[in-house]
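Attaching the record inline, Q. Sequence:
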Amino acid sequence: MLMMTALVSGCRKDLLTSDPMLGGLDKQATINNDGGSFRILPNADAYVQDGAYANSNYGSASYMVAKDDGAGYRREIFLHFDLSGVPPTAVMIKQAKIELTGGVAQLADTANAQWSYYVIKNKTMDEKTINWNNAPHEGTLLGEVDGRFKTKGSKVFFTIPSAIIQESLKSDKKLFVRIIAKRKTTSSPAFYSDFESKESTEPLYRPKLTIDYSTTASNYYSNLVMDKLTFDSIQAEIQSSEQVRSFLQAQITDKADLALGMAPAPVAKIDGILEKSVNEESNRVYRLGLQYFLFREHPNAQKYLDKAKENLLAWAKINTASTETPQESAFLAFIKGYSLIREQLDLQSRVAIDNWFKTRYDFYKKQEARTNNWETIRVLLMLDIAYVLQDNFRVNETTTAFYKHLNITYRADGASVDFLGRDAFAYHVYDMQFMGQIGRTLYIHKGRSIVDSLVYHRSSSWVDQRATITQNPVLGGSMADGFAFLRPYLVDTENYKHFEFVNTEWAKDKTRTDYNTLFRPSTATYSLVEMASIMRNDIIEALQISSPGYSRFSDLSYYLNSFGVTAKNPYPTPAIVYADTPYKGAYQQLSDGRYTLQDLKSRGVNDNQLSSIIVPKGLQVTLYDGENFNGDSIVLTGHSIDLIALNFNDKASSMVIEKL
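Structure, as predicted:
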C-alpha cells in the first residue's frame, strides 16, 4: 500500500565550484538557506613506498605518489580528514568528493590504468611516522577512477558515498582514505601518478574534501528521474489528492509488488528476440526503485531496494553491451532505477553494479558516432551512466559528444536527420523522445538555467547528407525548431498531412505496414511526454489538441515530466537567408531593419542570390527585386524552403524585416 511521507520544502540547486579564496585555509564553509558546502584540507596526508624505502616517511613532502609497479617500486597515498568542523545543522549529506591535483608520468598508459580508493575505519594517521611497514594496507573499496591525465594541474575527483560521511559524523568524525594506482593488465607500463599534498607551495593545488549538505531533513537525493522540486511536489500531491494516490498505486506500487515475486532473468547480450523481455525486467527495476525512492518511510520499503539490488547484481554478473544501439535503449530503465537506489546500497553491491555500467559506458564510447537516432541513444546511455557514477570526466566527455551531435541534427526549419533520411515523422518523433530524456538529465543535474540554451541551441554544422557534392556547413535548427516542424501535423491535420516513408532512403521501409500511410498524431504521444520536462507548456498544448483524452494521469512518464519547465528562447531571433535550397550555401542572419542592396552586400549577401529563407515566428520579411525597395515584391511570414515556388528565386535585391 502507498504510504504518505512528510512534505518537505523546496531546494535550490547548488553546484560545486572551485573556490579561489580557499587557498591555505584549513576549512571553509559556504552556507545558503537550504544548506551549503564545507571544504577542508586533510589534517594529514602522505605517500608510502615498499622495498628498500619501506621504513621511509614522506609526510613532509609537497607531493604524493601512487604507483603500480614491481616490488620495491610500489607507492600508495593516504589522506586523513577531521570532520569535526562540519556544521551541526548539516542534517543530510548530499554528496562528498575529494579533489586531488597533479599529473601523470608521460610514459604512463593511462587508458589501461585506474585509481582504486578505500575507506579505512577505526584507524588514525600520523603523517610524520607513517611508512609502508606500518601503514594500514586495507579498507573497504569505495570506487575506481580511470586514469586519464598526463598534464600538471589535472584534477581527479574521488566520490565519497554520502552514507560514509553520515556514519563518520555520527561516530568519530574522521575520514581516512587510501588510494592506490592499478594497471588493468600487468603487461602495460608501470602506472605512475603524483599529486600535490597539503604542503604544496600552490594553495589551489592542495587536496580538498568538499561536502555538500542540506540543513533540512529530506528523503531526496540526486537521481535521473526527478529534481528535488518535482520530488517535493509529488509528496505534496500524495498528501492532498486521492487521484494521485490511486494513480501511483496502480503505476508504481502494484507493479513493484508484482516484481517482488519474479526472479531475475539476465541475458548475456540483448538481441531482437530478447528485447521485449529485457525491457520488461528493466522496467521492473525502475518501478522497484521508484517505490523505494518515493515511499522510503514505509516500514516495508527495504524489500523493494533489496529486490532491485538483486536484479541489478544478477544482470551485472553476466550481461554485456551489444552493437545494436537502438536495442540497448532497453537498458535505460535499469540505469534510472539504479539511480534511485544507488545512494542507499552497501558498498560491495554498489561497486559491482558501478563496474557493470562502467564497462557498458566504455563499450558505447568505442562505437562509431552516427548522425541519426543511433547517436542520440548512444549519447543518452553514456550521459545517464556518467551522472549515475558521479563521474565528472565522463559527464564532460559525453556532454561534448552530445553537442557535437546536436550541431548536425536539425535543418534550419527543424527537419531532423531522421525525418529527411526516412521521410517519416515516425523517426522524427522516435529521436525526439531520446532528446527529451537527455534534456531531462541535464535539467536535473545542471539546473533550470541549462534548459533555455539547450532547447534553443541551433545546429552549427548542418550539411545536407543527401547532397552529391561537397558542402560547407551552415546554420541549422534547434530542438525547439524540431518540435515546431512537427507541430502543424499534430494540431492541424486538415491542412497538414504527410504520407510516411514514401521517399525513404532505406529500401526496407517500403515493406513496412505503415508505408505510404498518413501520419497519425496519436503515434507521437509516447515521444511528446518525454519532451514535457523541458518544453512543458508547448507539449501540453499540443497534446490537448492531438490527443484530447490524454492527461498526466494517462502515463507515468507524462505525470513525472508534467512537473517540468518550459524553455524560453534566450537568443535573438533573426531571419536567416540562404543562397541555395534547401537552406544551404552561403547564409547570413539579419535582424529586423531595412536593407538596400548596398546594405545586403556589406553583410555578405549578393544581388539576386537568395533561394531559401527562415522567417521566425513574430517576423515579417518583404523581398524586393529592386535594389531600393522597389519593383516586384513578396511578403513572407514563415519559412520558404524554395523561392522558386514563389517565383522569386535569385531575384531579391533589397528587403525589409519587421516585427509583427
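The radius of gyration is 28 Å. Confidence is low (pLDDT under 50) at residues 1-25, 29-33.

More tomorrow.
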